[in-house]
Specification:
Helix content is 0%, strand content 50%. The strands form two sheets. A five-stranded antiparallel β-sheet has the order 1-2-9-4-7, with no helix packed on it. It has a five-stranded antiparallel β-sheet with strand order 6-5-8-3-10, with no helix packed on it. The protein has a domain of 72 residues: Sandwich (Jelly Rolls), CATH 2.60.120. The radius of gyration is 13 Å and the shape is globular. By secondary structure, it is mainly beta. This is Cupin type-2 domain-containing protein.
Length: 109
């Protein structure tokens, strides 16, 4: 058993890892109004996002999709994705990477 407190985990650019390995990576992302995360993809793992608060805009390869609070989006390996909060209030979501492969991130820019 492992108990993890959100407040005890460091935040890096709005990303707070709650658990890193040995099997999965997961954590929280909080974006303030107008804040965004650049597009990237993972070659070997899919990623699921669940919106806890607000509306998050996902910038996919050929479209933008707004995902509201209480909804999830699943992205397969090699699907490019960036995030942006285009709303007037903070947005917060959970991310779950299906494997623990911290080196599996390729920036699109």
């Amino acid at each position: 058993m492992k108990i993890i407190s959100e407040e005890e985990q460091p935040v890096h650019g709005g990303v707070r890892y709650m658990n890193r390995g040995p099997d999965i990576d997961w954590g929280l992302i909080t974006l303030q109004p107008g804040e965004e995360k650049p597009a990237h993809f993972h070659e070997h793992m899919g990623e699921t996002f669940y919106v806890l608060q607000g509306i998050m805009t996902f910038k996919l390869e050929k479209e933008e999709i707004q995902i509201p609070m209480g909804s999830a989006i699943r992205l397969e390996a090699n699907e490019s994705h960036g995030l942006e909060n285009k709303e007037n209030n903070p947005a917060k979501l959970i991310f779950i990477k299906e494997k623990y492969l911290p080196e599996d991130k390729i920036n699109c820019t």
